[in-house]
Each structure stands twice: as structure tokens, then as C-alpha cells.
Backbone:
């Protein structure tokens, strides 16, 4: 029965990282909705967000200026990625784009390795404090990350449901051809999706590095986990993806606490296979892609 | 076997490659260079399997290194901990890799999308964790050491040259097998899956089974490479075949050229040596090779092999002297028995009923037309009968067998073929090869497939364009080719979806003539079209659909004079304010 | 107002439209009738910029649109309602309408002009009752009104309607016809309609072109076409003519 007492703490342990997975997953969803491409470089935005933040703080910049600048830099990176993709020759199919993102992800990870090495780096951001809620201790880092994620979701919701550009993005995802008939330019919507995803990733990196540290090696792992989270929540629904991320983080926390921390990174893979076996469209997604039809 | 010069040269190519590789130790001066070449051979093994998977079937695996690691660890542990001989450990390691591959592939490959790619990114993470956690028996991060070398008889293979030739001895059969697969009908099917899974299904290709099978095969070959590796290097640890390695395999394949077999070999050799040259800047390699991968995919995706035009694998050979035989399905008499009975098919999309209450009986040698105004559900009806869409209820009995829950590929093999409104030919295959794809279903011999394909080609008078690709021929020829692909599987029932679309009057006449010939041969035809000049003279009976429901059925005269039908097309006179 | 000259459209190797000429005047309703596969959709899709024609020019009020992107054409006043309506499913009626005015900016969308949201909604009261409903759950007729309303939000000078009566009951079709006539008459919008239903089409429009296999086989005022051209055989083939004579 002892594990029952520790249960809340196990869950709390996964909350922060779960929020991060959620932000990455939302980025996957936005890009997928806009262009049907799975962006294998998604995790790199988080890595660059975190490591650039470390450098910027290390240079002595005040955090209130430096951290937003870092997020902006990540946004630029996202725009650059999309620009590169548009140079693809005519007649390129999805596999081509996906493999380009794989190559770019690989190169970005290599660059990060050159710039920052493979060590785990961090900087200070949060005060050492926390609250006790229901049997679990939640530190300021976790609370901040969760709060920011909630705020991001609200902002994302406002963007997608209250602003004309967000609505245009949704329209483009629903039917790009018809969207053109009302004057929407799918190219721009795709660029917007990449920018938003990169921003989300960069923000996640900035926030999660102080408590959990960041290394240039994390990129692929974060990509896998973000994708898993997106599948759990439903690839076509960005909010579902965020929830998927939180669920994945909680699942990881639970498994780490109750089973073993040695398999920490493997739990996401196990979760992915389970979801694919049982419910490929995830919790909130719609389309079930089946090869047999 | 008819050996035309081009295919003779092609069959020679793997031997040439092996010969070149075999003489390498004779002119390499130092052991270090020989070691590099040995690693190149080991990577060639893996990339050959990866090429079948990615280059031919178009399925992306980003974690093939993990299967190499499975082979390596299994072999290492069985020989060091359990005292097995290296030769005995090898098959066990390969089978283990095959089982793991099947476990990964089955849930992911039944879906369309990049699930396999993500799963293969994640699997190495799990494997790595298992190795590290089980370090008591696996050696964990410090690895397994003192792995014994392989020996033949009592002679232990120590000399690097001997080892090189041993590995080459494994590369040879794998190269020949992958070469053979790539240049066989199976190769056509894999390329069809890559290009258009829906079309492949309708040609009788068992898409999911083949995808899984090729994945398992490629993983097994990778494991074999791992086994050979550990007995030379005598050491393996948790990080030996990491993500970097897996991605490098893909880069090597892309650089050399996917989908050519020899391209993969070239890529491994080139990038293997490039990697050596760049040894001083190892840490920059991911950046360089990642950029190379991205750049290649953006520009051409053909790699080195892409500079050379691909030659067709199958050619029709000389023109037949005798008239092509009847294209009847073996075992079906053309005598007018019932071949298809459809009853009560229903399909809804959300709140809209696309088709409801679709029923018809079809006899051999009968032409049934389905007509109706736009939006009547004609294409959906065809899709339900062919299996491209699943019906919510009802039955489809084809040649006495209930097949309403069968997928499209099984219905095709069972005797029901279809064409599509916009011809879905495989762009990377010639006209003749597309038809061969149609005739390759089931367990027929190569000779039968080729001879059927030749007969269809000549019957449809497509001989002049047999070696051209679909984008090089005109619309009518594409139409005919599609019909040819459907005919090549010896259908008892042929479904034609708007075959007359885009044809001139003369072409429509020729098409009508062809359909009459097919009917006279005993093939039953369901024809959906708007071009009444084709439909009305040809059809024995016409079924009229409106808003998904049948509203009239009968011969041409009665249907054309049916008031309900007329108003469905022309509309009832409405009053306007 | 709209001048199309020498328009040729192909899908791969298949010619869908052969060197077609047509015009639409301000405030005029012009119909393209013909059976399926005649090329009607290809014509309006090419005018809207969704299809790239092999040859021909599209000129609207003196501005050559032939090389313009679809978005640029919307800004010039071309509004297309595609076959099958094309609502943005998963989005509300209000959002659909709002998106129609995407190219015009917020002030114009919500202001008081004739193509602002309140005025368009006033034209289609049934939509006004369903503003927060998912557009995908509307009936066929309501969806048709929605997409016409959405097209109006872009303040069009040329309205292209592809098969507006598809799958709709006669009473609903009559309502839509009424609206279209008002748009032409009172707002001076030029309307080009593709209609498979020849009776409907010729009743609705002032002038018509009869298309078959990508060619114009007859053109003129609708009353002339109604009397002189044999519509039935256009759809059901020459054998109809025979049975009519029998």
C-alpha cells in the first residue's frame, strides 16, 4: 500500500516534463494539420531553446530580455526550416519532406553538439520553493511550467478560435483548396504553423532546462516523446496533443516511481506501441489511417 | 529463359560488384584500410536490406542500427556467457531480430503514415535501456568483451584477409537475393506499394503483409551483420550501434541512390571512405551528413545511381505469332452462369448516405451499366463492390464466395478487378511492367505471369508503347493500360469507372469494340459512365442511381423512357419567384 | 466584365476543355449546361485560379488575371463556390462567413457595408439562427446558402457557382435561385453558374452555353436554347431522339 501514498509524488514528478511534451506535441499537430508533414526536427527547437538560454544567461544578460530573445531566435529557426522545405523540387512527396526534416534535425543536433558539447547544462531561473498539494510536493519550476502551458493553451485557443489568422489556419487544415477560394494562401499558413511550433518548442526548452537540465543529445528523444504525446492525444488536435503530453508525462512519472527509473526513456516508446495497437487515432483525433482501405 | 542483352548485363552486375569487392584485399596494403573495407562490407549487408525496405517499398526505418545491435548482443552473449559457438549463435540471433521486427511492424504498418519511422526511433531507446539495466548479464555500458572469433573447423579466423572474405561470403548470397527480389515481380509489387497503396491493393498486392515481410527480412539481415561484427571486433557495448549509426545508414543509402540495390553499395563505399577521410573532424560528421541528406532529398533523391536511367525489369520480348488466346478466368465457363451477386450494400459518411440498398445480379458475358446524375453515388457503389470501401451491411458473392468483408486485394485475386476514374498506373514502372503487376497476383509462375501480360498487351494493341512510362503516353493509351492491368488478373468481373472520360468519339468507338470482345469472351462488366453514346448501345441492362438509391433498372429503352429517370437528370420544372 | 478567351484545360493527357470563349456581363446570370465530364467545373476552376490552363486568358474588368494566384483573384473580386459546397467542416457558421471576408480586413468584415457580416446574415435568415452551429452539420440547402454567403463576404464582382443544386430538394433550389437573381439584379454581381440540371439552369440564367466534351455546342439567350436545343439527347444520348420519334 506504500506505493499508494507515493502515488501523488510520482505523478507530480511527471507533470513538468509532461507539459513540455505537450508543447512539443502541439507543435507537431500544428505542422501536421497545415502541411501533412511530420517534422522530425521538432525536438531540436526545445534543445536550442534550452541551450541558448543557458548561453544567454551565461553572457550576463538579464533574464527578462534574454529569454524572450531566445524564443524569438527559435522562431527564426522554425521559419528557416520551412524556407528550406519550400526549395524542394516539384513533385516531391511527403516522404521527401519528412526525410529533409530528418537530415536537418541531424545537422542541428550536430551543430548543438559542436556549440555546447554533450554535457547536461542548466541555469537558474526558479527560486527554491514549492507547495504541498494533496500528498505531493510541487516546486516552483513545475508550477511555473504548468501555468505557462495553461497560458499558452489559452493563447493558442484565442489565436485559433478568435483571430482571423488562426481561423484561416484551421480552414486550411480542413480544406486547403477551398481555403484558396476565400483568399487564404496555404503557403503562409504553413509558415505560420512552423513559426508557432518553433516558438512553442523554444519556450518549452527555456522553461524546462532550469529544473531538468538540457543536453544537445536530447533532441531525438524529445522528438519521439513529443510525437508519442501527439499520437496519444490525437495528431489532428493541438489541444488534444497537449493533454496527450501531460498524460504521457504522468505515465512516465508513474512508471519511473513504481517500476524503475532505468527505463525512463523507454516508457514513451511502450506507450506509443500500446496506443498504436489499441487506438491509433488517439483520444481526440479523428482520422484513422488504415492501409487496408 | 529469354535473355535479352540488357537483362543479361543487369544479371551480371551483382557478380561484377562481388568480383570487385573480392579483389580488394589483394591491393590494399595495410590492415587498417582492410579493416575499413570490412566495415564497409558489414554496412553493405545492412543497407541492402534497408534499400528493399526504403528504396523499394518506401517504408522509413530510422533505427536499423538497433537490429544490428540485437544480432551483435545475442551472438556476443550466447558465445561468451553460454559457451555456444559463433555459428550456432548466428541463426538464433537472426530469428530473435526477426521476431522483434515483427512485433514492431505489425501494429505500425497496418496504418498509413510515419508510425514505423517513429517506432524505429523509439525501439533503440528501449533496447538500449534493456542492455544498460541488465548490465549484469549484458555488460551494459562497459560492454561484452573477449568475444571469441569465428573458426572454420579448427582454424580460428584471425587474419584480417580471411575475415574479409568470410564477410564477403555472406554479402554474396544477400546481394544476390536482394538483387533477385528487386528484379522480380516482388520488386514490382514493392514499388507499387511505394507509389500508391490503394492502386497496389486493387492489383491484388497484399500490402500490409508485404510491408511487414520486407521489414522483418531487412531486420534479419541487419542482425546477421551484427553477428559478424562482434566476432571480428570482439567487443560490443550499449552505445555501439546508436542513433548516429542508424541515420548514417539512411544517408549512405540516399547518397548512393535508393531503389537500385547497387546504389546502396556505392553509397556505403563512398560515404564509408568519406567518413574515414573526415576522421579528424568526427564531431562535425552529423552536421555534414545531415545536411547532405537534406540537400540530396531536396534536389533529386536519386543519389549517385540517379544519374543513370533505370531500365525496365520486364520486357515483352518478340511479338506473338499466333492470335492471343481468350482472356477467360480458368475454371469459369463463359456460359452465362451467375458470377456476381450484390445485395443490400450500404455506406454512409457522417450524416450523408452515399449509397443504400445497392443490389444486382450479374452473369458471365453481361454488361451492366450504372448511371445517374452527379452525386448519385456511382463511384461509391463501385468502391463498395471492389472492396476499396467497406459496406456497412449486405453481401457481395463473387463466383460463389462471400467476400463482403474481404479487402480489395483478395477480391482481385478472387476474380474481380477494377479501373479507376483517373488511371492509377505506377509511374516508375513501364506500361508492360504495370500490366505484369496485374498478372503477378497469386501463385503463378513467372513464365505464366509474363505470358499473360504479353497476351493482354497484344490484345489491347499496346505493343508500341510497352516500354514507355505512364507519363509518356497519351490519355487513351493510359486508359487502355489500366484496363490491361485489370484484365491481367483474369477477372470474371471487371469494374470500369468512367472509362470514356476524356476520350474522343473515335476512341470511344474503339473502347466499345474492346468491351464487346471482352463480353463475348465471357467476362462480366459493370460500367459506370456518363457518356451515353457508349453506355446505351453496350449495356444489356442499366441501373440508375439517384442520391445513392436505385431508382430504375432495366434495358436501355425502358430506362431512357422512364419519367423518373428523366426528371432525375433534367430536373422537374420548378417555379421561381 | 468577364472575358474568357481560348481557354484550354487538360488533366495530364486528357483534354477537358477545348479553346473556350465566354463572357459574363455585370449583373448578368450566365449558365454553363451540359452533362458530367463536359468540362464545366474545369472552366470555373480555371477562372478562379485553382487550375492552371494550358492556354487562354481570363480578363476581369480589363485586368488580366491569367497569371494571378487564387488569392489575388479573390482580391480582384472573383468568388468561387465549388461543387459539393465546400463548407469548412468543424468550424461554425459564423467562422465560415467571417473567413469569406478574409481578404478584406476586419473593418470591412464587421462594418456596415453591403458585404459585411450583419448584412450578409440578414440576407440569409436561416444562417442567422445557426451562427454557432458546426457547418458540417447543416442540411444541404443551408450549406449552400452558407457558402454563397461566404462568397459574398469577399465583396465579389463575379460569382462562380459550381452545381449549386446538387442533391437539393426543389423548394430549396428555388430559394437559392431567388437569392442569386437578387444578387445579380440589385447588386450588379455577374454570376456564372455550372448546372447539370438544364431546366433549372436555363430558367435561372439570362444567357447560356451548352458544353459537351469540352466544347461549346450551342450558346445564346436561355429562351432560345430552351426552345431550339434538344437537351434530353444531350444527357441520354442519341437513342432518345430515336425513341422520341418512334
Residues:
Amino acid at each position: 500500500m506504500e506505493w499508494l501514498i507515493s502515488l501523488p509524488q510520482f505523478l507530480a514528478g511527471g507533470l513538468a516534463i509532461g507539459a513540455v511534451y505537450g508543447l512539443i506535441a502541439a507543435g507537431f499537430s500544428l505542422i501536421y494539420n497545415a502541411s501533412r508533414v511530420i517534422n522530425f526536427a521538432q525536438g531540436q527547437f526545445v534543445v536550442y531553446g534550452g541551450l541558448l538560454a543557458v548561453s544567454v544567461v551565461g553572457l550576463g544578460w538579464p533574464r527578462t530580455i534574454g529569454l524572450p530573445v531566445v524564443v524569438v531566435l527559435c522562431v527564426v529557426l522554425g521559419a528557416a526550416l520551412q524556407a528550406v522545405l519550400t526549395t524542394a523540387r516539384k513533385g516531391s512527396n511527403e516522404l521527401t519532406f519528412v526525410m529533409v526534416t530528418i537530415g536537418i534535425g541531424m545537422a542541428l543536433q550536430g551543430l548543438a553538439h559542436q556549440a555546447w558539447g554533450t554535457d547536461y547544462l542548466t541555469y537558474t531561473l526558479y527560486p527554491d520553493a514549492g507547495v504541498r498539494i494533496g500528498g505531493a510536493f510541487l516546486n516552483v519550476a513545475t508550477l511555473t511550467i504548468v501555468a505557462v502551458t495553461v497560458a499558452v493553451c489559452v493563447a493558442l485557443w484565442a489565436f485559433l478560435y478568435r483571430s482571423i489568422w488562426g481561423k484561416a489556419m484551421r480552414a486550411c487544415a480542413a480544406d486547403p483548396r477551398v481555403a484558396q477560394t476565400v483568399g487564404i494562401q496555404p503557403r503562409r499558413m504553413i509558415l505560420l504553423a512552423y513559426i508557432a511550433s518553433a516558438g512553442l518548442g523554444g519556450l518549452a526548452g527555456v522553461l524546462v532546462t532550469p529544473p531538468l537540465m538540457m543536453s544537445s543529445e536530447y533532441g531525438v528523444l524529445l522528438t519521439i516523446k513529443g510525437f508519442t504525446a501527439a499520437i496519444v492525444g490525437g495528431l489532428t488536435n493541438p489541444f488534444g496533443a497537449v493533454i496527450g503530453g501531460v498524460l504521457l508525462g504522468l505515465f512516465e512519472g508513474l512508471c519511473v516511481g513504481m517500476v524503475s527509473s532505468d527505463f525512463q526513456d523507454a516508457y514513451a516508446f511502450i506507450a506509443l506501441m500500446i496506443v498504436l495497437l489499441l487506438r491509433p487515432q488517439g483520444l481526440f483525433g479523428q482520422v484513422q489511417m488504415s492501409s487496408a482501405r | 529463359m529469354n535473355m535479352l542483352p540488357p537483362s543479361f548485363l543487369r544479371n551480371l552486375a551483382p557478380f561484377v560488384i562481388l568480383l570487385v569487392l573480392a579483389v580488394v584485399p589483394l591491393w590494399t596494403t595495410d590492415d587498417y584500410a582492410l579493416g575499413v573495407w570490412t566495415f564497409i562490407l558489414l554496412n553493405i549487408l545492412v543497407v541492402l536490406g534497408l534499400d528493399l525496405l526504403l528504396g523499394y517499398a518506401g517504408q522509413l526505418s530510422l533505427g536499423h542500427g538497433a537490429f544490428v545491435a540485437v544480432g551483435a548482443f545475442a551472438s556476443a552473449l550466447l558465445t561468451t556467457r553460454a559457451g555456444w559457438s559463433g555459428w550456432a549463435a548466428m541463426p538464433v540471433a537472426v530469428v530473435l531480430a526477426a521476431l522483434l521486427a515483427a512485433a514492431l511492424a505489425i501494429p505500425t504498418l497496418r496504418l498509413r503514415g510515419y508510425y514505423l519511422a517513429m517506432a524505429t526511433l523509439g525501439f533503440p531507446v528501449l533496447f538500449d535501456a534493456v542492455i544498460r539495466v541488465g548490465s549484469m548479464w549484458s555488460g551494459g555500458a562497459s560492454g561484452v568483451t573477449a568475444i571469441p572469433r569465428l573458426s572454420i573447423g579448427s582454424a580460428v579466423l584471425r587474419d584480417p584477409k580471411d575475415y574479409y572474405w568470410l564477410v564477403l561470403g555472406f554479402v554474396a548470397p544477400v546481394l544476390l537475393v536482394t538483387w533477385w527480389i528487386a528484379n522480380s515481380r516482388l520488386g514490382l509489387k514493392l514499388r507499387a506499394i511505394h507509389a500508391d497503396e490503394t492502386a497496389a491493393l486493387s492489383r491484388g498486392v497484399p500490402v500490409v503483409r508485404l510491408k511487414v515481410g520486407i521489414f522483418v527480412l531487412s531486420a534479419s539481415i541487419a542482425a546477421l551483420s551484427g553477428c559478424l561484427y562482434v566476432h571480428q571486433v570482439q567487443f560490443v557495448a550499449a552505445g555501439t550501434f546508436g542513433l548516429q549509426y542508424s541515420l548514417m545508414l539512411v544517408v549512405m543509402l540516399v547518397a548512393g541512390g535508393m531503389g537500385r540495390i547497387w546504389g546502396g553499395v556505392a553509397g556505403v563505399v563512398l560515404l564509408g571512405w568519406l567518413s574515414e577521410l573526415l576522421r579528424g573532424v568526427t564531431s562535425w560528421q552529423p552536421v555534414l551528413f545531415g545536411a547532405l541528406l537534406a540537400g540530396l532529398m531536396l534536389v533529386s533523391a536519386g543519389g549517385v545511381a540517379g544519374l543513370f536511367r533505370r531500365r525496365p525489369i520486364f520486357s515483352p520480348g518478340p511479338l506473338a505469332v499466333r492470335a492471343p488466346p481468350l482472356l477467360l478466368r480458368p475454371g469459369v465457363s463463359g456460359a452465362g452462369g451467375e458470377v456476381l451477386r450484390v445485395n443490400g450494400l450500404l455506406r454512409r459518411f457522417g450524416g450523408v448516405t452515399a449509397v443504400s440498398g445497392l443490389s444486382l445480379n450479374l452473369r458471365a458475358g453481361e454488361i451492366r451499366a450504372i448511371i445517374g446524375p452527379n452525386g448519385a453515388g456511382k463511384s461509391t457503389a463501385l468502391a463498395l463492390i471492389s472492396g476499396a470501401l467497406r459496406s456497412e451491411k449486405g453481401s457481395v458473392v463473387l463466383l460463389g464466395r462471400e467476400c463482403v468483408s474481404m479487402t480489395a486485394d483478395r477480391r482481385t485475386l478472387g476474380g474481380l478487378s477494377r479501373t479507376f476514374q483517373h488511371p492509377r498506373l505506377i509511374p516508375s514502372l513501364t506500361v508492360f511492367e504495370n500490366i505484369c503487376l496485374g498478372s503477378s497476383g497469386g501463385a503463378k509462375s513467372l513464365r505464366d505471369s509474363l505470358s499473360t501480360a504479353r497476351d493482354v498487351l497484344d490484345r489491347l494493341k499496346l505493343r508500341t508503347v510497352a516500354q514507355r512510362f505512364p507519363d509518356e503516353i497519351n490519355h487513351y493509351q493510359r486508359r487502355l493500360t489500366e484496363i490491361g492491368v485489370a484484365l491481367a488478373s483474369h477477372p470474371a468481373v471487371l469494374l470500369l469507372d468512367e472509362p470514356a472520360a476524356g476520350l474522343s468519339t473515335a476512341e470511344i468507338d474503339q473502347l466499345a469494340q474492346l468491351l464487346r470482345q471482352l463480353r463475348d469472351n465471357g467476362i462480366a462488366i459493370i460500367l459506370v459512365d456518363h457518356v451515353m453514346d457508349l453506355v446505351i448501345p453496350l449495356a444489356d441492362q442499366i441501373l440508375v442511381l439517384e442520391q445513392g438509391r436505385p431508382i430504375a433498372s432495366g434495358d436501355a429503352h425502358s430506362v431512357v423512357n422512364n419519367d423518373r429517370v428523366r426528371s432525375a437528370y433534367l430536373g422537374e420544372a420548378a417555379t421561381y419567384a | 466584365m468577364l472575358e474568357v478567351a481560348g481557354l484550354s484545360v487538360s488533366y495530364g493527357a486528357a483534354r477537358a476543355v477545348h479553346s473556350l470563349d465566354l463572357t459574363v456581363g455585370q449583373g448578368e446570370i450566365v449558365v454553363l449546361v451540359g452533362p458530367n465530364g463536359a468540362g464545366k467545373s474545369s472552366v470555373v476552376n480555371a477562372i478562379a485560379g485553382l487550375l492552371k490552363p494550358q492556354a487562354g486568358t481570363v480578363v476581369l474588368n480589363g485586368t488580366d488575371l491569367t497569371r494571378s494566384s487564387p488569392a489575388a483573384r479573390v482580391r480582384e473580386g472573383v468568388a468561387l463556390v465549388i461543387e459539393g459546397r465546400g463548407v469548412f467542416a468543424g468550424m461554425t457558421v459564423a467562422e465560415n462567413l467571417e473567413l469569406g471576408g478574409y481578404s478584406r480586413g476586419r473593418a470591412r468584415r464587421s462594418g456596415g457595408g453591403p458585404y459585411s457580416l450583419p448584412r450578409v446574415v440578414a440576407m440569409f435568415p436561416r444562417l442567422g439562427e445557426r451562427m454557432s452551429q458546426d457547418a458540417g452539420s447543416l442540411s444541404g440547402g443551408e450549406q449552400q446558402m452558407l457558402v454563397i454567403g461566404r462568397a459574398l463576404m469577399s465583396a465579389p464582382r463575379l460569382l462562380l457557382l459550381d452545381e449549386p443544386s446538387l442533391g437539393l430538394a426543389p423548394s430549396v433550389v428555388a430559394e437559392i435561385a431567388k437569392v442569386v437573381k437578387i444578387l445579380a439584379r440589385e447588386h450588379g454581381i455577374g454570376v456564372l453558374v455550372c448546372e447539370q440540371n438544364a431546366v433549372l439552369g436555363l430558367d435561372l440564367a439570362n444567357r447560356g452555353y451548352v458544353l459537351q466534351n469540352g466544347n461549346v455546342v450551342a450558346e445564346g439567350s436561355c429562351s432560345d436554347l430552351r426552345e431550339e436545343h434538344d437537351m434530353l439527347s444531350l444527357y441520354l444520348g442519341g437513342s432518345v431522339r430515336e425513341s422520341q420519334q418512334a
Q: What stands out?
A: Residues 2-278 of chain A form a domain with the ABC transporter involved in vitamin B12 uptake, BtuC fold (CATH 1.10.3470). The first strand of chain A starts at residue 130 and ends at 133. Strands of chain A lie at 130-133, 136-139. The CA atoms of residues 160 and 167 of chain A lie 5 Å apart.
